[in-house]
């Protein structure tokens, strides 16, 4: 198949390109050329800004696609206005428009087992173009609506959860792999039984391509794994893979709140399973699994992430998680309780 990817050189995009090429598809990239510009030298790349340069794809003279594609995958749409431009442009040029959204679109996560039909978040001012923790999900929901209005039932909307694996620029999963490998006492969130949901970036890429190959449309939650994943199992598996002497000190929710430890940023991949976040780590993925979503083993995801971590510069600073000094201070408090 001939596939055009908007973006394609950051974390998810690069794995999507690798997966598509491994499956024998012809890939064209459309991006600004600012992120990892030399990553895919043998892949046709057309440089431009999606807001004002879509016309550069007219005819796609460098490609055998002749300006049409079997599928277009939009990996980096955040604002409805810009997504509208690309959806309208590609409507006559592709059989399938795929929009990468997020499970953050849901209005709240109080429900256990949120599925694709549950209400999405809304903005009072739909003209806002600033991505924050408060606007991100609602903006993605508006982008979905835009795609569906223009492309109709033939569109494909993917709502990933926390995407993890090698080359993750957020470090939200990477932090735990690296920190556990370092060993010693580690501040762990809440209790061993608290759940989290993650999806290996390569599994996500393969799933999307499977849907395209099978000409599937609709909306899909895409996170994992197939069975509930507890933080205890996640950290124990990190310890097993790295062979470290890590010892986990579990900080209960009262301690977390009293010490102003921020879930998701200080304690990545974790949100308290109470109130409006009770179902955050229990999103229903049965529709995606029935459509072909498959999962790598947790061990393999951790191993490959650790291999990538070990290739990073020694002075690399994690973008998520507790700083060593802060963790030491908190462990001191926890150990005297």
Q: How would you sum up this structure in a few lines?
A:
Helices cover 32% and strands 17% of the residues. The protein is of the alpha/beta class and 337 residues long. The strands form four sheets. Strands 3-2-1-4-5-6-11 form a seven-stranded parallel beta sheet, with helices on both faces.
Secondary structure elements and pairings:
Layout: E1 2-6, H1 11-22, E2 26-31, E3 44-47, E4 69-74, H2 80-90, E5 94-100, H3 136-151, E6 156-160, E7 162-164, H4 174-182, E8 185-189, E9 195-196, E10 198-200, H5 201-213, E11 218-222, E12 229-230, H6 231-242, E13 247-251, H7 253-258, H8 286-290, H9 298-309, H10 324-335
Parallel strand pairs: 1-2, 1-4, 2-3, 4-5, 5-6, 6-11, 7-10, 8-13
Antiparallel strand pairs: 9-12
Helix pairs in contact: 1-5, 2-3, 4-6, 4-9, 6-9
How far do the termini sit from each other? Answer: 61 Å
Number of H/I helices: 10
CATH superfamily of the largest domain: NAD(P)-binding Rossmann-like Domain
Question: The CATH topology of the largest domain is what?
Answer: Rossmann fold
| SSE succession | EHEEEHEHEEHEEEHEEHEHHHH
Low-pLDDT parts are: none
Strand content: 15-25%
The CATH architecture of the largest domain can be given as 3-Layer(aba) Sandwich
Outline: globular
How would you describe the overall organization of this protein?
With 337 residues, the chain is α/β, with parallel strands linked by helices. It has helices at residues 11-22, 80-90, 136-151, 174-182, 201-213, 231-242, 253-258, 286-290, 298-309, 324-335, and strands spanning 2-6, 26-31, 44-47, 69-74, 94-100, 156-160, 162-164, 185-189, 195-196, 198-200, 218-222, 229-230, 247-251. The chain has two domains: 2-165 and 198-222, NAD(P)-binding Rossmann-like Domain (Rossmann fold, 3-Layer(aba) Sandwich); 174-197 and 227-281 and 297-335, UDP-galactose 4-epimerase, domain 1 (Alpha-Beta Complex), CATH 3.90.25.10. 32% of the residues lie in helices and 17% in strands. Helix 1 (11-22) crosses helix 5. The protein is globular. The termini are far apart.
């Amino acid at each position: 198949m001939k596939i055009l990817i908007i973006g394609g050189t950051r974390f998810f995009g690069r794995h999507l390109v690798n997966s598509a090429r491994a499956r024998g598809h012809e890939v064209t990239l459309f991006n600004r050329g600012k992120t990892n510009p030399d990553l895919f030298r043998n892949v046709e790349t057309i440089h431009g800004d999606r807001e004002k340069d879509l016309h550069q794809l007219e005819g796609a003279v460098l490609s055998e696609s002749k300006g049409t594609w079997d599928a277009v995958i939009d990996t980096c749409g955040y604002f409805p206005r810009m997504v509208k431009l690309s959806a309208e442009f590609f409507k006559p040029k592709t059989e399938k428009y795929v929009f990468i959204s997020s499970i953050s679109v849901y209005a709240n996560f109080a429900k256990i087992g949120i599925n694709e039909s549950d209400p999405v978040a809304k903005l009072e001012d739909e003209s806002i173009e600033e991505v924050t923790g408060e606007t991100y999900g609602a903006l993605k929901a508006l982008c979905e609506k835009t795609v569906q209005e223009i492309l109709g039932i033939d569109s494909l909307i993917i709502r990933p959860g926390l995407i993890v694996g090698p080359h993750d620029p957020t470090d939200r999963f990477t932090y735990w792999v690296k920190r556990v490998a370092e060993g010693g006492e580690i501040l762990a969130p809440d209790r061993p039984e608290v759940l989290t949901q993650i999806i290996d970036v390569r599994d996500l890429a393969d799933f999307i391509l499977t849907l395209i190959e099978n000409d599937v449309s609709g909306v899909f939650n895409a996170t994992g794994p197939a069975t509930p994943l507890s933080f205890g199992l996640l950290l124990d598996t990190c310890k097993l893979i790295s062979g470290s002497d890590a010892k986990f000190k579990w900080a209960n929710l009262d301690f977390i709140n009293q010490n102003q430890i921020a879930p998701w940023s200080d304690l990545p991949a974790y949100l308290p399973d109470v109130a409006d976040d009770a179902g955050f780590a229990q999103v229903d993925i049965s529709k995606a699994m029935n459509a072909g979503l498959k999962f790598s083993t947790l061990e393999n995801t951790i191993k490959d992430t650790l291999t990538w971590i070990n290739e990073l510069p020694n002075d690399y600073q994690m973008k998520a998680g507790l700083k060593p000094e802060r963790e030491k201070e908190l462990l001191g408090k926890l150990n005297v309780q």
